[in-house]
Amino acid sequence: MEIYVIRHTTPDVAKGVCYGHSDIPVTHAFEEEVRSILSKIPQHIQIIYTSPLERCARLAAAIAAQSNVHIITDDRLKELNFGDWEMQRWDTIEQTALMRWMDNYEEECCPNGESYLQLVSRVKNFLEAIATSDHQTIAVVTHGGVIKSMKALIDKISLKDAMAYQSAYGEIIRFQV
């Protein structure tokens, strides 16, 4: 199975703001970014899975329109839930709690949010579910944290090593599973 994982386009949010689970729009550059993405997407995509958040769902709809394929929205593809930190500037978050999380992000939950291991668990559940699919070429429109989790699981590397991977907005990553 080929999985083409596409990170959403540029979100319309100020730099330095924590926005994981928050549903924020995309920038005015969306159409230009979409044209670039569509020129790189294989024509033989059979189905698209997407996070329900607008910055992913809108891109998935554009890909579906070009590819004439069905979209399945899946909450497991949402970005990390930063809980109380959502839409807060990173530099205004209580520093002791932030450092505790940064020192152990794999297991430490953001206040009223989740840990990266919980995100990885969601992603693992998603990957196990699509493994039973009859589709051989799948597109997944999602977020940076989900992509890192997929890299850890599919490439069989540590989450710490996967965290070093930085995907650009609109980047397409191909996995063969």
Automatic annotation (TrEMBL):
GO terms for molecular function: alpha-ribazole phosphatase activity. InterPro entries: His_Pase_superF_clade-1 (IPR013078), His_PPase_superfam (IPR029033), PGM_Phosphatase (IPR050275), Ribazole_CobC (IPR017578). One of its GO terms (cellular component) is cytoplasm. SMART domains: PGAM. Its EC number is 3.1.3.73. Coiled coil: none annotated. Pfam families: His_Phos_1. GO terms for biological process: cobalamin biosynthetic process. This is Alpha-ribazole phosphatase. It comes from Ohtaekwangia koreensis.
